[in-house]
Specification:
Layout: H1 10-24, H2 27-51, H3 69-89, H4 102-124
Length: 125
């Protein structure tokens, strides 16, 4: 079995190695490997039946939290304090931009109409 040295997770290296091994096998060896895999699955089923387990009843147990509620409350209070400190130092919002007066809007509108009329006339020439 060729060894593959990659800076990848161990699981990935194993899968990659298995992939290369499968490529190097003959069709007869592949059939034997598939038969062995089926036999292993059948034996595992028999073992579960013998032990009185079925696949649905086997569930991983969730790890219980080891932190007390008082500890969680302290951490939450400290985080709220950090956020309050950050928000308190935040610079005031930029002043609102001034709005254009109606006269300024009208002046800009007249200038733009003249600009586009000039461009349109130049294109027609």
């Amino acid at each position: 079995m060729p060894a593959i040295n990659h800076p990848l997770p161990l699981d990935f290296s194993i899968r990659l190695t298995t992939y290369y091994v499968v490529i190097d096998l003959t069709s007869n060896q592949l059939r034997q490997a598939a038969n062995l895999k089926d036999q292993i699955a059948a034996l595992e089923k028999q073992l579960q039946v013998l032990l009185g387990q079925n696949s649905a009843s086997i569930k991983p147990t969730a790890k219980k939290s080891t932190m007390s509620s008082a500890g969680k409350a302290k951490i939450a209070a400290a985080q709220r304090a950090r956020w309050a400190k950050v928000k308190g130092k935040k610079a005031t919002a930029a002043p609102a931009k001034g709005k254009m007066s109606a006269a300024a809007k009208a002046a800009v509108s007249i200038k733009m109409k003249a600009y586009w009329a000039k461009r349109k006339a130049a294109r027609k020439k």
